[in-house]
Write a structure and sequence with these properties.
mainly alpha, 0% strand, globular, 260 residues, 11 helices
């Protein structure tokens, strides 16, 4: 993951050797932090997921989904300070390169969106099928019907989200341009925090509704899974757990810090 993160930051601009060292350093710091802070809990959650059944699927899916959201939010928070320090080293040329790179991503997304002749519901169904394949679950016709009916209740928020995201990116570029001012640190941290509540009240309410529908779909799919499907799912989880155990052992981190 540290190599992935380093590459992710470096592709936004042509970095100096010193900046590459800085990126590698905070990428490694993130790997260490994640292992110490979350990895044992992730292992415990995977162990619990092996017990998913018709009776507990709703509660278990909701808890795993919420924990995943928490990990994403805590990861974003972790990177605030490293990004702040990195931002202070940027040149005007690099900020321009970052802006051009982000603009190219937006244009590529638009080309891909226009090039796909699928409805929002069809795209979501495809993503669900692909997602379940990754965890070794081949959905049957009834489960695909559950998903198809569920995604029909979901609001397509893509256009609104892209609008608010693009406005946020423009704001970020402006803030980076003021990196030598005394107010820069507070301004950047404040702007990064806006990602946690991006959009207007209507968008946030619709996002909340979509998340509820997502939980409901996942719960119903697992609830209706056959023993053969669950066995395949548990086998995939065991593979993940074995990989995590190797990392924990290498770092001398307890498997069950919470007593699980």
């Amino acid at each position: 993951i540290d190599h992935y993160l380093a590459g992710y930051f470096e592709k936004y601009a042509n970095c100096s050797e010193q900046q590459k060292i800085q990126i590698a350093s905070f990428s490694q710091d993130y790997e260490d932090w994640f292992a110490q802070t979350h990895l044992s809990e992730v292992r415990s959650i995977l162990k619990e997921l092996k017990t998913v059944n018709k009776e507990n699927s709703s509660e278990l899916v909701s808890r795993v989904y919420d924990y995943t959201q928490y990990v994403v939010e805590s990861t974003n928070h972790f990177f605030e300070f490293p990004f702040l320090q990195f931002s202070k080293t940027l040149t005007d040329k690099q900020i321009k390169e970052i802006r051009e790179h982000l603009k190219s991503i937006q244009k590529e997304e638009e080309r891909e969106r226009l090039g796909v002749e699928m409805s929002y519901s069809e795209k979501l169904l495809e993503r669900y099928i692909s997602g379940f394949k990754k965890i070794n679950v081949k959905l049957d016709t009834h489960q695909e019907k559950i998903i198809r009916e569920g995604v029909g209740d979901m609001e397509d928020l893509g256009a609104k989200w892209r609008l608010f995201r693009d406005e946020w990116i423009e704001g970020l570029i402006q803030v980076l341009g003021r990196r030598n001012e005394l107010t820069f640190e507070g301004e950047l941290i404040s702007h990064l925090a806006k990602l946690r509540s991006l959009g207007d009240e209507e968008l946030r309410l619709n996002l909340k509704t979509n998340r509820k529908v997502t939980k409901d779909i996942l719960s119903k799919v697992f609830s209706g899974s056959s023993e053969k499907q669950l066995k395949k799912f548990r086998e995939r989880l065991d593979n993940y757990i074995v990989s995590i155990d190797r990392v924990l052992a290498r770092r001398s981190i307890p498997k069950n810090p919470s007593g699980r």
